[in-house]
Amino acid sequence: MAPPSTVTKAERALHDQVNILPRRQLFTALSAICLTLLITFIDQNGISVTLPTIAEDLHGQDTISWAGTSSLLANTAFQMLYGRLSDIFGRKTVFSAAIGLLTLADLLCGLSQNPTMFYVFRGVAGIGGGGIANLAMIIVSDIVTLDKRAQYQGIIGSTVGLGNMIGPFLAAGLVHQASWRAFFWMLAPLGALTGVVSYFYLPSKPPTANFKESVGKVDWMGSLLSSIAIIFILIPVSGGGAYFSWDSPMVISMLAIGGLSTFLFLIWELKFAKLPMMPLNIYKSPIVVVMLVQNFLFGAVYQSYLYYMPLYLQNAHQYSIMRSALITLPLVVFQMISSILSGQYINWTKRYLEVIVFGFSIWTLGSGLALLLDRHTKPSIIIIPLILNGAGVGCIFQPILIALQAHTPKSRRAVIISNRNLYRSAGGASGLAISAAVLQARLRATLPSDYSYLAGSTYALPDSAKNVPAVLDAYMAGSHAVFILQVPLIALCLLGTALIRDRGLEPPEVSAPENPLASDELEQKSPVQQLPSHGIGVGGNEGLELAVATPKEDPKS
Asked: What sequence ranges are listed for the domain Major facilitator superfamily (MFS) profile (predicted)?
């Protein structure tokens, strides 16, 4: 059994959105969620194979890495806010808003006329896509009991894998037959369709509070400070050494502002926020801390692998977009398979630790084998690390989320999911940025002098350089440097599993914090009863932690 935890009084005042569905309604709701996730991850991962074409068409060869970084940066900046917004305004409302943002962003991406426009709209897509992925997990936690959640999270994970699989092929086909713009124009109406489907088929338990009262509950100051901190830290991390010098006044000032904003955010969340986006006492659990750090690290590895493996195939091997997508197919196929199987295993055994250990083990092995790849490696050999990495990813993404929820009180499930996604997205943005810097640094060191200008163009080779062995060797060296970076990061995740304890799927009890004010207040009040499903969602804004030992939560809730 997990150790007791505490929740604030304001958190208990939130209306309960748990809505366990019968099988038929559950099937339709999950279908709507899976359809939306499918479009989201087609958008997210299809773009990777189109970047060389987009860079050439928009004349952005030297900055095209910002297409991925801007999306992940915006995604990260809004992750924490989504959990609390869904607590306050209702899951379906926030989910629908995220779908609308992604749909609009895809339409505008297709209309972009220069790199800046494209990067801005990819940022909007990151906000929408991040919200969809976040809310999908939160909604599943509301409509499925915890002891069955792994099974359905496995299905969700397989849908993500399916989107990862379809995206590159669909994008490559449209680039070849039409243009890269057609890819986004196809996604926009499909996104609108998923919005309609979700509106009619997702359950909803809207808050009873009016709009003004709900707006007043939002942690606006925390959101502002966290966004400033994330943006002002990740921008120099993304561009430092590649687009501007590390010792430049801009980098130094942005890092200083980001660091100060982080400090102020933590103080605000600890002392002043009535309904904090990041309740700092979640960090009292060492196991939760370890798993959040693991999410950051494997987020960095996963995103850089998704972006730079196709580039290795297209640049070092000179494979076409379609062929590179075909070779990377085993990665997502085995991610789908292992996601389903790991969910079934957890559902049967009520255990998750051995799944996580196995996942990180084979992921580490696959990352190590990627170091053996060179410019002449046959596709039949290239797919071996792809298979291992895909199987490892499928055993990690959803099982570690199940583990986090098992160590978190029910009232904080939305918060822990949002914070987990924050760490994974921050890791992804950092991983992409650092990988781009590593690749460019290696290119500067290895490119022939006549082709040194290519160091700023990491995504597309001009025709004049495609048949120059020294240039291809330089791109191979750059890809190899990126692969080297991934090995110690995922190995640290594996080592971290030694600190995780599997206490089953039962969530922790809610017990008394060491807070004399809360204890004094409790002596004058009767025990707090659980709110009904349509309970009042206002009041209780003092932010004091309740000193009441509630009955043990049902693990099926």
From this structure: 29-505
Distance CA 152, CA 165 (A): 20
Summarize pLDDT for 19-71 with one digit per residue, the tens.
777 888 888 899 999 999 999 999 988 887 788 789 888 988 777 878 877 88
Q: Could you tell me the CA-to-CA distances from 153 to 37, 106, 156, 398 in Å, in that order?
A: 12, 27, 5, 6
Phi-psi region of 16 (alpha: psi -120 to 50; beta: other; left: phi over 0): beta
Q: Is 195 exposed, middle or buried (0-12, 13-18, 19+ CB in 10 A)?
A: buried
Phi first, then psi: give them for residue 246, nearest 5 degrees. Answer: -65, -30
**More confident site: 63 or 194:** 194
φ and ψ of 510, to 5 deg: -100, 120
pTM of the complete model: 0.79
Q: Facing residues of 510 across strands?
A: 5
Encode burial over 464-502: b for 16+ CB neighbours within 10 A, e otherwise: ebeebeebbbbbbbbbbbbbebbbebbbebbebbeebeb
Count other C-beta atoms under 10 Å from residue 221's C-beta.
14
Is 431 exposed, middle or buried, given 0-12, 13-18 or 19+ CB atoms closer than 10 A? buried
Q: Collapsing DSSP states into helix, strand and coil, what is residue 347?
A: helix
- 199, 339, 402, 45: CA torsion to nearest 10: -60
The total of other beta-carbon atoms located within 10 Å of residue 249's CB is 9
**For residue 237, what is the DSSP state?**
H
Pick from 212, 147, 35, 57: nearest CA to 557: 147
